[in-house]
Amino acid sequence: MKIAQIAIDVPLNTYFDYIADDVSVEDIGRRALLPFGRRLVVGVIVGVASEVADPKFKLKSVREILRDAPPLPPHILDLARFCSTYYHHPLGQVLAALLPQRLRRTQALSPITEACYNVTEAGLAIVVGDLPQRAAVKRKLLAALQTKRTLARRELLQISGSAGSVIREFIAGGWVRESAMPLTVTRNAAALPAQAAAHALNADQQTAVEAILGTPPGFAPWLLHGVTGSGKTEVYLRAIAAVLARGGQTLVLVPEINLTPQLEARFQARFPQATIVSLHSNLSEGERLKHWLMAQAGNAHIVLGTRLAVFTPLPLLQLIVVDEEHDSSFKQQDGMRYSARDVAVFRAREARIPVILGSATPALETYHNALHGRYKLLELKARAVRDAAPPTVRYIDLKREKLMEGFSAPLITAIKQRVKRGEQSLLFINRRGFAPVLLCDECGWLSGCPRCTSRLVVHLKEQRLRCHHCGHEERMPHHCPSCGNVDLAPVGQGTQRLEAALTRLFPEARILRVDRDSTRRKNALAEMLEKVHAEEIDILVGTQMLAKGHDFPKLTLVGVLNADGGLYSADFRATEHLFAQLLQVAGRAGRAALNGEVLVQTAFPQHPLFAALQHGDYAQFAQTALAEREQAGLPPFTFQAMLRAEAATLDSAMKFLRAAVTLAPAATQVQVYDPVPALMARLAGKERAQLLIESRSRGALQQFLSAWIIALQAHKTRNVRWALDVDPIDT
Ligand code: ADP
Ligand code: ZN
Ligand code: ZN
Description:
Blueprint lengths: L2 E5 L8 E4 L11 E6 L2 E11 L14 E3 L7 H13 L4 H8 L14 E7 L1 H5 L10 H13 L1 E3 H7 L3 H10 L3 E7 L20 H12 L5 E7 L5 H14 L3 E5 L6 H11 L5 E4 L5 H12 L5 E4 L11 E7 L16 H12 L2 E6 L4 H8 L4 E5 L11 E6 L5 E2 L2 E2 H13 L2 E5 L8 E4 L16 E3 L4 E3 L6 E3 L12 E4 L3 H11 L5 E4 L9 H10 L5 E4 L12 E6 L13 H13 L10 E6 L5 H7 L3 H15 L6 E9 L2 H14 L6 E3 L3 E8 L2 E10 L2 H17 L5 E7 L5
Parallel strand pairs: 9-14, 9-15, 10-12, 10-13, 11-12, 13-14, 16-28, 19-26, 19-27, 25-26, 27-28
Antiparallel strand pairs: 1-2, 1-4, 3-4, 3-5, 6-7, 6-8, 17-18, 20-24, 21-22, 22-23, 29-32, 29-33, 30-32, 31-32
One zinc ion binds next to loops.
């Protein structure tokens, strides 16, 4: 009898035996269609056996082994096993999480092809130089077709965004024929050239590149620490060029989907012949599958993606880059709660390749690793563009200055100057909407979310109150629901309110608001950034969306409206995040030849964080923060795990956690704290509580968790959902 051992997407840490007469070891990593309970599900074959693990059970048969896509390669199965062990998450669920959605469906795939264009004899006979000079796109496309003979639609579009219409002309003229080719035709092992860089490397970049390229092959974790604009991307490009020259693949992880088009364009310009695919949640199911398969086939040279892309099969992988490695969006916050950055480092170790973690403000964990020699530190000390001095940072003491609609007089003056000089200003506030809460002056009623421990945010234009945590929304009331008073006042500032105030203060200026609300439409953000570059905008108001990655040469003023929320927070990571965020926004000012100025409105100008920010001194900040963490026994000096529970009542959540404490195995090096309600105790109608586990030894913690999770899984719970979060980032 032939048995397929199958991992299934259920919360049980085991595989399941199924009869499969036609299974062979070649099928390990393939999907299989099988009956599970009363459902038909897709599982992944993780082993083949001839004997049943437990003869008590009557085995079912696999319905079909799906051979419509190549099996998951061993390196990905190993990575999944590692994650299953480290994050204490069932293997079947890990595999389900990492497969593209399309591969989790029970319907077989249709053959995967892509449109391509073949140049005809007639097309070959045309002399490109004879085409009119101004028909630049035509010239480029025809030249490319003549060299390569066949080009996929994707490749043509990479040459020019208007390739579609030009190709139709070519077809009409008989120069080109359209056809379809199977997706996985070639395995790109050939060396690829790079376009010459626009600049010679500066000394710091040179040192970094030489260190990376000069290190013998094998696992090498690098921390590339450099302020925004110091030329980190240029260092990545050099490292990638070396990989391409050897015919290898590179995985580049970025924190945000919004950053991928920019980076993709920059990579494509440097490596015009490379196939670059993106992987993120904004792609359609079909696109995502195609890109994944191109990566798996070795067709894609560079995979550019967000968190989940860390699991992409890459047979020729030679380098991983994690840009903005400190960014919290690399941490998955539900299902398998993994850190894509940490998984990337693990993956690099297994694949014996270098991994470059880049950041202006590394996570303290990462920096700690670099200080202790576990990661190798590379520093880019200055901004790369000549003459670009770091911005001057000044503080405006809110205890002395009166605010006008959120703005202090010095800030208004500074904006006025910029508008007059034709330079741009960016005003940063970490809150979208009009105002964070609606208040009744009579009785003190505040607009609270009925489903969360949070306030409903005023969205004035839409006349709605919205919860930014659970999505609850309602009409804005005309009178107080509690006392009937009609004078309800929005309190505090949000991006919409600042935009309105700026419009009144600077009627002649062109103002643009950039936040999650104004960029909801596809391409909206790209179009907005385009406008800023074209200097059609004088004043930008926005959230952290604007803090990242974008490079605006005419931007010389950054105003931070209210930074104080993070200074004295219950979350021990709040100052780290605030510092990173402020340094990041500050970095937007004066990136080109013009000098930049940063004005921060705060009630606590003496806070040590601000002194470090003023000097742009990450190391100073990090050393102080790390010393505090060490004293307090916090990560990275200890290792943590959080057992999270949610239920309809706080009582059941707490009861479950108290039971969990009694199930904890005896362990000397591990501390089990008391269960407590979460900081946001109520979210989306669920009450939440948590239980912190801590140890100075990662090994001891892992050993404890392995034993504990078995007891927890065996423990019958009703009406409580729980999850284990290893290395949690919100505690
Ligand atoms: P980062 O990724 O650290 O933010 P970038 O690589 O985007 O920095 O570089 C910032 C700017 O400096 C870009 O416009 C880039 O073209 C330019 N640049 C990078 N390296 C150099 C260099 N060696 N000389 C001059 N300009 C450079
Ligand atoms: Zn809510
Ligand atoms: Zn009232």
